[in-house]
Design brief:
mainly beta, globular, 5-stranded antiparallel β-sheet, 0% helix, 4-stranded mixed β-sheet
């Protein structure tokens, strides 16, 4: 499972919270849980005006002003080897000196893989 937040350079910090236990998972690229399956990362991309945001359902975009190339920061929270216990709500909180604090909730549904074996007698 990977959730991505994409924002213009004015945003200074992104926090990830798990609602089940109100656990702070990560701030920026620093992970605050002992579980090594959680990975947080931040990357910066320069894009031409008018091309920001992918429009995908798991991306939140806030375009920056100005002409020419714009700097966009992409914060990612990834859970490797997702387990059923990881299901639930997660929140991405965004804040910075030049931007109001906003948040976005996502719900992670974990669907198990089940195998059905049929026995054929001959």
């Amino acid at each position: 499972m990977k959730y991505v937040a994409l924002f213009a350079a004015g945003v200074q910090q992104v926090s990830w919270i798990r609602y089940r236990d109100l656990q702070l998972l990560a701030v920026g690229d620093v992970v605050y849980v002992a579980d090594p399956r959680f990975i947080a990362s931040v990357t910066t991309t320069v894009v031409s005006s008018g091309t920001a945001g992918g429009g995908s359902s798991d991306t939140a975009a806030a375009p920056g002003g100005g002409g020419g190339g714009q700097h966009f920061h992409q914060w990612s929270l990834q859970i490797q080897n997702v387990q059923e216990k990881d299901a639930g709500r997660y929140e991405c909180q965004v804040g910075g000196a030049a931007t109001p604090r906003i948040s976005r909730l996502v719900r992670l549904a974990v669907v198990g893989i089940y195998f059905i074996f049929n026995r054929f007698d001959s």
